[in-house]
Amino acid sequence: EGRSACPDLRRLDLAKNASLSGQAWYDVCVGGREGGREGGLPVGLEELNLAHCKRLGERGLMGLVLWGQRLLKSSSSSSSSSSSSRLVFLDLSYMGLDGGCVTTQQNLKDLFVVFPCLKTLNLRGNRLGKEGGRALADALKQRSSLPLEVLDVSETGLNYTTVVALLEGLRFSCGAFRELGLGGQNELESPNWEKAMRILGGGGGEGG
Prior knowledge:
Blueprint: E1 11-13, H1 22-30, E2 47-49, H2 57-77, E3 89-91, H3 102-114, E4 120-122, H4 129-141, E5 150-152, H5 160-173, E6 179-181, H6 190-200
Parallel strand pairs: 1-2, 2-3, 3-4, 4-5, 5-6
Helix pairs in contact: 1-2, 2-3, 3-4, 4-5, 5-6
């Protein structure tokens, strides 16, 4: 026991499972309440879709990050990359995250550490706000080189300062970046959009 039952599973789509709670998903990721039963998703998982699982929230994200940390620790102890996460696609859109929660902020900061191969990250429709957005920007700036190509933070309540921090993080760390979703950011006024877009064009931004 303790070994993945489907080690060769590459894609898992659980989108729109309204009954999937954060605690249930946490148990799947890090271990159930039954004595002696070890949890964990398939080691070879490359794509995970949790879109519109609105009850997952902070607890669900925590379980996912802890699973990634377990793989990372296993990889480090064995001096091999065979056990580290291979996740390249992660859809967490509309899963009930609140960026004002300190635990969520820390888990956002850890995403690219525990999932170093991540190329696509979708956080659309979560209430990241300035705190959650800043945590994500800090996560980008922690690593000098990330394989991230696609990021969707549409409808997440980011303000101008946070958008600028995210754009600077993408420029700093993501040389292969090609697609950005920023729709529905009603906190940004028209003049600030122009300033923010200058960063993507190679110009400077005003972080105030």
